[in-house]
Design a protein that fits this description.
The longest helix is centred in the C-terminal third of the chain and has 16 residues. By secondary structure, the chain is α+β, with helices and mostly antiparallel strands. It contains eleven helices and 17 strands. Belongs to the plant acyltransferase family.
């Protein structure tokens, strides 16, 4: 199946910004500093998402904006850290969140296009125009005022439908933490309804051991020759902004089933996950743009909640993820059996044991480092943002918003046929190779 470029006509959704303000907790919250785990420390970048809703005569966009504002005021009490600001603890050389109730961002906007103009097929192809639906900073704030850690945006369309955009600093939480937050935000959009889930906010549950005990090598992190401790600053896992091509690569349920059937015939894996199949294909496409004599490393982002003992609460509202690298030579990736790549990814994930997790957090306590690999694949397949029930209904579609990360590929459900889409951003020449390999792969099976 062809890769889909972001729809050219939809690069500009003709958005007019009407209001930009700060939302504060509806009642006083304790002033405190929140400890950030060693994984939280390095995820200091924004993740924008967009959630689309069709017209609802009982909830026009103006009503939704007011309901959402009130829901945010309520939910910022149990999620007080979302209304706080990052600060550097110079004595410890660590970032913390200062819970000072400085507020979350809130934006109201209007688009001069309708959802029908975008079209169902195009709606689920996250295009460049979606960046207008989830702004990442409030230009209305004076330069000396710290920007909020999260910004929410309600954008109405000409048809009466609307989008809720959310841009959050990754330090706040991972994908599953975001799902719990959205369930709670949605619960507060109803009148007199309790929180859906009590969030578990104690991040010290993932603090390093004292003394640290590093029992594994951790090649998934790039070590910097930087000081650790008083006066130091954690490195930031981000990349430069450059000219990139954006494409969505789609795999139908039929294609995925066919690949799984073929792998089963030649592989010893008893249970083949959709993620492993998609990640293996992405890895293969990416490896073709590299020197075949070098080793390529794919980073798999793994949820560690069920992998530690005792297990973390499912309501843990922070970052409970770790990258795990799997490696192979580019020549073997290009010429070897596809099933072998699926096996490498599947077997590699089993290394993420309780002791490995503890060792990784301890390594980060002793070293300054960031995730390191040729490509990272982050799965949204289990998040289910489109299953969240608000007072005005469930989203017709939820998706990540394209951004400047050329080192991360996001994988998510395709809302049209239930297959899988992969959002890829690469320099033009690398994208041409990636796309050609993707097409050739399906032409050969």
């Amino acid at each position: 199946m062809a890769a889909l470029s972001p729809v050219p006509s939809m690069e500009d959704l003709k958005v007019m910004f009407q209001e930009s303000s700060l939302i504060f907790p509806y009642k006083e919250t304790p002033k405190k500093s929140i400890f950030l785990s060693n994984m939280d420390q390095i995820l200091n970048y924004d993740i924008p998402t967009a959630h689309f809703f069709g017209p609802n005569p009982d909830f026009p966009p103006e009503t939704v904006a007011e309901r959402l504002r009130t829901a945010l005021e309520k939910v910022l009490v149990p999620y007080d850290f979302m209304a706080g600001r990052l600060k550097q603890n110079r004595e410890l050389g660590r970032l913390e969140i200062n819970c000072n109730a400085a507020g979350a961002g809130f934006v109201v906007a209007k688009s001069d296009v309708s959802l029908d103009e975008i079209g169902n097929e195009n709606l689920v192809c996250p295009n460049l125009g979606y960046r207008q639906l989830a702004v990442q900073r409030l230009d209305s704030l004076p330069p000396e005022v710290d920007q909020p850690l999260c910004v929410f945006q309600v954008t109405s369309f000409k048809c009466g439908g609307f989008a809720i955009g959310m841009s959050t600093n990754h330090i706040l939480f991972d994908g599953l933490g975001a799902k719990v937050f959205l369930l709670n935000l949605a619960s507060q959009s109803f009148e007199n309804k309790p929180l859906a889930i009590i969030p578990y906010n104690d991040r010290r549950i993932l603090a390093a051991r004292s003394p640290p005990q590093v029992s594994f090598p951790h090649p998934e992190f790039l070590k910097f020759d930087l000081p650790v401790g008083p006066g130091s600053t954690p490195p930031k896992f981000d990349c430069i902004i450059e000219e990139l091509d954006f494409k969505i690569f789609k795999l139908t349920t039929t294609q995925i089933s066919h690949l799984k059937d073929n792998i089963t015939k030649t592989s010893k894996i008893h249970r083949i996950s959709t993620f492993a199949v998609v990640a293996a294909l992405i890895w293969r496409c990416k490896a073709f743009s590299d020197d075949k004599n070098r080793v390529s490393t794919l980073l798999n982002v793994i949820d560690i909640r069920p992998r530690v003992n005792p297990q973390l609460p499912s309501s843990y509202s922070a970052n409970a993820v770790l990258p795990l690298g799997v490696s192979e030579t580019c020549e073997e990736i290009q010429n070897g059996a596809f099933s072998k790549l699926v096996e490498i990814i599947t077997e590699g994930a089993k290394e993420m044991t309780h002791e490995y997790v503890k060792s990784a957090f301890d390594w980060l306590e002793l070293n300054r480092g960031i995730p390191h690999g040729d490509y990272m694949v982050s799965s949204w397949l289990r998040l289910g943002f489109d299953e969240v029930e608000y007072a005005w209904g469930k989203p017709m579609y939820s998706c990540p918003v394209v951004n400047h990360r050329k080192d991360i590929c996001w994988v998510f459900r395709d809302a049209v046929d239930g297959g899988v889409s992969a959002m890829v951003a690469l320099p033009s020449q690398e994208m041409n190779i990636f796309e050609a390999v993707f097409h050739d792969f399906f032409a050969s099976i």
